[in-house]
Design a protein that fits this description.
By secondary structure, the chain is α+β, with helices and mostly antiparallel strands. 14% of the residues lie in helices and 19% in strands.
Length: 70
């Protein structure tokens, strides 16, 4: 963590693809296969399951596959 973590993150940055989303844009849908990782820089994202709100995440939240119900 700290400086060492920042250095590691910067080394990965060239492979990042940045995406800007508008409010209510779907980033992915329940059941979609994924080979990407999302890092939320600004704003918040709502997680829904069967149309019901499960969580509202902001940039300070860390969620793993275990936490997302996968």
């Amino acid at each position: 963590r700290g400086l060492q973590g920042d250095v590691r993150l910067r080394s990965l940055a060239p492979s990042f693809e940045f995406k800007t989303c508008e409010p209510d844009d779907a980033v992915f849908s329940e059941g979609d296969e994924s080979d990407v990782m999302f890092i939320l820089l600004n704003g918040s994202v709502a997680l829904e399951k069967a149309g019901e709100l499960v969580a509202l995440l902001d940039g300070s939240t860390v969620m793993t596959d275990e936490g997302s119900g996968h």
